[in-house]
Amino acid sequence: MNPFLLSEGELILRVDEASRMDWDVEVDVLVVGCGGCGLLAGLAAAQRGAQVLVVEKEASAGGNTSLSQGMFPAAGSKFQRQAGVDDSPEQMAEDILAKNHHQSDPELTLHVARQSGTVIDWLWESEGIKLDLVTNFLYPGHSRHRIHAPRTTKGTWLVDRLLEAAARHDNLDIAYAATGRRLIARRSDSAVLGAEVDISGVGLNRARAAKTILALNGFGANKEMVAEYIPEMAEALYFGHEGNSGEGLLWGRALGAELLNMGAYQAHGSVAHPQGTLLSWAAISLGGYQVNRDGKRFVNESHGYSEHALDVLAQEGQTAVEIFDQEIYNEIHEFEDFKQCLQMGAVKRFETIEALALGFGLDPAGLARTHALLQRSARGEAEDPLGRTGLTRPLKSPYYGVRVTGAIFHTQGGLRIDKQARVIRTDGTPVPNLYAGGGAAVGFSGAGVDGYLSANGLLAALTLGKIAGEEAAREVSEKDK
User: Fold this and answer.
1) Which residues are CB-contacts of 250 (< 8 A; sequence separation ≥ 6)?
2) What share of the chain is helix, strand, coil (3-state, %, to 5)?
3) Nearest partner of 399 among 379, 419, 374, judged by Cα
């Protein structure tokens, strides 16, 4: 079923009074979606005493978080302080706004930056989940070392730890293969009262909730919505979770919510081709480079891996070859994504640049010239012709190459929210009882592909999930007093 084609009645069940409904389950907080955002929302609400139900339409948890590298940017965490990193939420917000051309809400951006460090500390101190600070290189666009990630750099590790934490809370239940079909809203004011959930093997259930949190991702798997809002990526490889079909955004819109920056998305210009597995951007950050079939570099690779996808797709055959050396190989060989590239045979080893050119069908003379120019720049003998800075050493034999392409990972446009993660209508008022985070809420990447700052996806998922869960539980608690 394509939710983009559903009518308003198929998206929202409008009723006069909740008391006249037959409900199958009643909870304080209903969370739709069980990726990083949903799990953070559920944990935060449960910690505050709310009875929480998380529903996930897939057979297992994770969503896009499980496909990510688990990287989360945070300013002011205890791990930053221990490492002596001079950072602040204000500096982090400046970096985000500089990258997205000041196209995200500045107050909300700063608020999320201020909350980011508390997410890292809270995960460690309350649930024993440690995300280590990455200090061996800076990710594109970040002026400080603030990326925190699992040592495996794999989102599945984070999801597994969050599920273990959820299992320790008796007031938090998760239902799998449970698809949200419609939100249930009061006819008079569109206040959300719960949702219809189709549970595999059980049937349609009506879940009543004092507060509902949309923790679904965006619409990357919905080809019609991508063609409508992101036409330049309509035919590109989709590298995200297949469950991201956009119903959360459509539910919100049907209730009068405002949709913002729907043309924004995160892409990646370093997906091994044809294997379809991610080659860590760390290979570029540590000094690697990319060339086309003529053996020529085609852009300054350090501008950002999201917009770089379009540069790769613009090359002949929509591919490039990524080149790095043994020292870089040694730095990244324990990354889970890179291990998958190795297992699938995507990484090729050569003793000389000439041999690498022949191995990938590149123009040998063109690659030799390109490599020589880059080596001169890395030795400080000349400026890089494409303006790349930060190269600290020339590459040394043996060399490694991987054929790569560009792909769309997840969308960044979504429902307008406020600092409490409440969904906001086009008239500026909140939709009663409805919150959103992750890919269901508008992200912090501005209006297009070039506004994505490394790890913006999990910044929105984890931080907004925690905010939504805490705020929903707080409101329930205050109402009960």
Assistant:
1) 3, 4, 6, 11
2) 40, 25, 40
3) 374
Q: Are 105 and 428 in contact (CB under 8 A)?
A: no
Cβ atoms of 134 and 144 within 8 Å: the answer is: no
431: CB partners within 8 A, 6+ apart: 190, 191, 192, 252, 255, 256, 257, 422, 423, 424, 425
Cis peptide before 432 (omega within 30 of 0): no
Mapping DSSP onto H, E and C, the string for 102-169 reads: CCCCHHHHHHHHHHHHHHHHHHHHHHCCCCEECCCCCCCCCCCCCEEECCCCCHHHHHHHHHHHHHCC
* pLDDT-derived band at 351, boundaries 50, 70, 90: very high
CB atoms within 10 A of CB 478: 8
Residue type, 151: R
pLDDT bin (cut points 50, 70, 90) of residue 302 is: confident
- 387 near 300, Cβ under 8 Å? yes
Confidence of residue 1 (pLDDT cuts 50, 70, 90): low
Q: pLDDT tier at 251 (50, 70, 90 boundaries)?
A: very high
81-90 burial code (b ≥16 CB/10 A, e <16): eeeebebebe
Residues 6+ apart with CB under 8 A from 276: 237, 239
- Using DSSP, state whether 401 is helix, strand or coil: strand
DSSP reduced 3-state for 423: strand
Beta partners for residue 441, in sequence order: 415
Q: What is the mean pLDDT of residues 192-217?
A: 96
- Cβ 271 vs Cβ 239: under 8 Å: yes
Q: Show contacts of 105-113: CB within 8 Å, 24+ apart.
A: 107/419, 108/417, 108/418, 108/419, 109/444, 111/419, 112/444, 112/459, 112/460, 112/463, 112/464, 112/467, 113/75, 113/89
**CA atoms lying within 13 Å on the CB side of residue 403:** 19
Closest of 3, 177, 170, 145 to residue 71, by C-alpha: 145
Joined together, the tokens standing for residue 27 give: 């909870």
Tell me the C-alpha distance between 149 and 161, whole Å: 13
Per-residue model confidence as pLDDT tens digits over 392-443: 899 999 999 999 999 999 999 999 999 999 999 999 999 999 999 999 999 9
As given in the structure block, the two tokens for residue 206 are 């009506």
Per the CB < 8 A criterion, the answer to whether 341 and 400 are in contact is no
